[in-house]
Recover the amino acids of this structure.
């Protein structure tokens, strides 16, 4: 019996691995067209390196030093035209290869945005919370101020070079309740030439320009490179933290652009009367050389929607302009419903007529099985019991859950969770009878045998939620005091026969230390398993991917207290 039950145990970790080399190989294909540079002799978009003075001997100049200071143009020149070519004797070049001119490449804000007229228009609209729309600029005021600038750099070829340097970086896979994506360390610590060039550009020219537009006293910048691959996301948040003043994004999507079908838009949320995020009211899809900035406020709710393509990656340089005097944020108060799983209302064991032997698989009520389960829970604080209910009875419950007369209510706010709970009054009789099993004194007694917790006492209570999960659902770490008391969680899923049909949507029990969430226990949404976890840590449910084959499942979450 012990060997059989061992196969029921929960996996202690479910980690997604990051293969930087794999991304690099994929990116080489995606961005293979980024080595060419547009010829623009008629424009002043580039700052050119001066040629050597007439009295300076070429042989005295180190060719390698020259190369570090210049960029090679790949376009050809008319036959016989050699004026200004780099013909230093230290260069190794075949005699039949036409020499190529070199130019310094530095980021420059397009003159359109720096003109006095444009600057004054943006400043005026920003100050008055009014909107501004033209071919190059979108400044909106609702749901919060945000400025979108198309073709921001006058010399976008620099972004092509920076995009290539993404392949050289060591990216960290960032996975918490709020997000999943790849991120570099702060660009100031990188060594890649063009990325450092962009960082200095943001730190000096752009920060000074935005300070002039907004009137903010900006002191420094923090910036990282981000990659969103298939199924990556960043859920609803407001960016509030310490001295952040203005958030920004610079997109590097490549010359092929970004099709809306790839997902990954930046979405803005309206807020309800209490100041909590409510619904998406505006979205912007990535465009190469597009620059976006907005102030960090108490209601600047936004998210990066899930990327849904296997053939491209969403690349950006993003971060914040900071201030010396941290702004004062007023976070709206949130009070969970008293009857929710996070509320204070709990019920004691009910004396209802329930025959556990009728509902449960015979193995789980046998004395020897109970002893094996108890020993495992004592050692590991968790266990997963497959086929816990008799299959025919369990299938009938699933059918009842799918009936249209069951009313489901959305759980808010979106910066904490997004799923549905059943309206108890609309539940069919068979579902109520099933829930009664978990509220019955018989179940309290059985759980006491499983765990040796004092659940067969007059003080023992339980609370529950019957939940419906669809793609896009999640449950983040919230304001609930997870350390207030330890509880015994029971989770059972309905309607998902294969875990491979669900991407994400795993319930995890995690530690919380300095923003590092280490998963202690991970529960997969596989039906007819009774998952038992003695919870002395925080609980979350990961984002449910819209690419999942399973489009809906249900769960019953119960929490028992001694």
């Amino acid at each position: 019996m012990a060997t059989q039950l061992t196969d029921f145990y929960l996996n202690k970790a479910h980690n997604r691995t990051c293969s930087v080399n794999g991304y690099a190989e994929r990116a080489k294909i995606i961005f293979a067209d980024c080595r060419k540079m547009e010829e623009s002799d008629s424009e002043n978009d580039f700052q050119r390196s001066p040629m050597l003075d007439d009295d300076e001997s070429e042989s005295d100049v180190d060719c390698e030093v020259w190369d570090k200071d210049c960029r090679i143009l790949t376009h050809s020149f008319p036959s016989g035209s050699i004026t200004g070519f780099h013909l230093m004797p230290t260069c190794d070049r075949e005699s039949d290869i036409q020499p190529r001119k070199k130019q310094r490449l530095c980021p420059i804000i397009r003159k359109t945005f720096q003109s006095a007229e444009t600057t004054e228009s943006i400043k005026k609209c920003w100050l008055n919370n009014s909107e501004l729309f033209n071919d190059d600029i979108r400044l909106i005021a609702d749901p919060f101020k945000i400025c979108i600038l198309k073709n921001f750099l006058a010399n976008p070829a620099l972004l092509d070079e920076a995009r290539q340097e993404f392949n050289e970086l060591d990216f960290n896979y960032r996975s918490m309740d709020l997000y999943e994506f790849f991120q570099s360390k702060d660009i100031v610590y990188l060594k890649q030439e063009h990325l450092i060039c962009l960082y200095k550009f943001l730190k000096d020219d752009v920060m000074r320009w935005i300070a002039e537009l907004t009137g903010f006293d900006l002191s420094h910048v923090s910036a990282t490179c981000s990659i969103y691959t298939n199924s990556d996301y960043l859920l609803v948040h407001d960016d509030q933290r310490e001295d952040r003043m203005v958030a920004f994004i610079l997109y590097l999507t490549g010359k092929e652009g970004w099709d809306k079908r790839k997902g990954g838009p930046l979405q803005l949320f309206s807020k309800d009367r209490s100041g909590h995020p409510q619904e998406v009211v505006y979205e912007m899809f990535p465009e190469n050389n597009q620059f976006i900035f907005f102030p960090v406020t108490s209601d600047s709710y936004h998210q990066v929607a899930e990327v849904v393509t296997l053939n491209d990656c969403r690349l950006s340089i993003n971060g914040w302009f900071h201030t010396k005097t941290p702004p004062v944020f007023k976070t709206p108060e949130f009070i969970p419903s008293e009857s929710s799983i996070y509320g204070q209302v709990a019920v004691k064991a009910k004396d209802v007529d329930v025959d556990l032997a009728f509902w449960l698989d015979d193995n789980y009520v046998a004395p020897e099985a109970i002893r094996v389960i108890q020993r495992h829970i004592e050692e590991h604080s968790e266990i997963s019991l497959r086929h816990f209910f008799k299959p025919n009875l369990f299938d009938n419950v699933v059918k009842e859950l799918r009936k249209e007369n069951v009313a489901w209510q959305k759980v808010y706010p979106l910066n904490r969770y997004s799923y549905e709970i059943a309206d108890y009054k609309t539940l069919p009789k068979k579902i109520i009878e099933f829930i009664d099993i978990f509220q019955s004194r018989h179940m309290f007694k059985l759980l006491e045998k499983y765990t040796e917790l004092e659940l067969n006492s007059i003080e023992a209570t339980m609370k529950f939620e019957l939940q419906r999960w669809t793609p896009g659902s999640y449950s983040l770490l919230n304001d609930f005091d997870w350390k207030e008391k330890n509880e015994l969680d029971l989770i059972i899923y309905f309607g998902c026969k294969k875990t491979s049909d669900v991407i994400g949507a795993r319930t995890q029990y995690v530690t919380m230390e300095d923003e590092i969430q280490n998963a202690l226990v991970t529960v997969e949404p596989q039906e007819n398993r009774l998952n038992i976890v003695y919870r002395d840590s925080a609980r979350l449910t990961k984002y449910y991917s819209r690419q999942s084959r399973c489009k809906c499942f249900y769960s019953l979450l119960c929490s028992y207290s001694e």
Q: What stands out?
A: The first helix runs from residue 2 to 6. The CA atoms of residues 121 and 308 lie 37 Å apart. The longest strand covers residues 218-228.
